[in-house]
Amino acid sequence: MHALRPAAKAAHAAHAARSLQQLRCRSRSRSYSLSTYIPSSSTQTSPFAPRHLLSIADVTPAELTTLVRNADAHKKSIKSTGEVPLSLRQSLAGRTVAMTFSKRSTRTRVSTEGAISALGASPMFLGKEDIQLGVNESLYDTSLVLSSMTAAIVARVGPHSDVADLAKHSSVPVINALSDLYHPMQIIADLLTITESHPSASTSSLGLEGLKVAWIGDANNVLFDLAIGCVKLGIDISVATPKGYEIPQPMRDVIQHAAQTAPHPGKLIETTVPEEAAKNADILVTDTWVSMGQEEEAAKRIRDFAGFQITSELAQRAGAKDKWQFMHCLPRHPEEVSDDVFYGPRSVVFREAENRLWSALSVLEAFVVNKGKIE
Q1: Architecture in CATH for domain 186-290+299-354
Q2: Statement: 56-183+357-366 belongs to CATH 1.10.1040.10
Q3: Taking the model in full, what pTM does it have?
Q4: Rounded CA gap, 82 and 78, in Å?
């Protein structure tokens, strides 16, 4: 698949944007809210507007490669010396980074605060009890006020429209720390984890072309951004979901558009049979079957996902690669993956969790310190 010419690329991007607007018209069987995705480029009103990270779709394949490589370099440097290089720890000295979290978290909060502190800045945590986005004050007002006092805004929200609106009006970079559509910092951590397990001497890419990732479970925000990242880097991603829980067509269009931007795109394959997805897979991945806000339908979802638990038996039956590994962004529930896989030697989930710190450090350096110049 070759890169699109400029006119065709613009047309394809416009089609993808129109498709994403249709995400509001979802089947009632899919209860989580999917708001319109607004690319960060659409929010910029002048050449001086900051660059935001709302999705992996916002970076090129080369930039994504650099973000992963920088995360890896920071991890190796800091863990080997036990200290943050002076050039990093003074880069945001005396500044404040706002963290607006409408949803609770463990890994996102700890990794983001750690990365902010490593850069010399002070994290200002604003939870749902401290600030209510769009409730007591409009998103427009909140964005103007927060961006006037801080170096950046890291937002963990419900509807993607919340973080998109913050970015639209902010005078500083806005980083999406999770929305109902995307989770970009998680995906950089995931790609770093995959790179560590599949090292390459390539200088032009991460050398992951031809790998196969099997996602077995719900089609959610983590999958959407993971699929975008995979096809950009030449990784094939095979997705198994129960009937009624498939990737919505508008999001498929976004993923396919991402593939069009890659020199050697990966493929998106979909099925309703877990064994088909896991066949010849290098990595098996899942996530929660019941996301925040879906608790009332937990019993129905667990019934619908019967047979989708990742186990050693499933991997063997499917014919996964001999050295297959398991990933999960956490928190994990026993119905999603068996204990012997989750805590076994094939699992890299705790290294994956640690890599959230290095992902956050790479992203904040690129978008806040270097003002969106990724190198």
Answers
A1: 3-Layer(aba) Sandwich (3.40)
A2: no
A3: 0.89
A4: 5
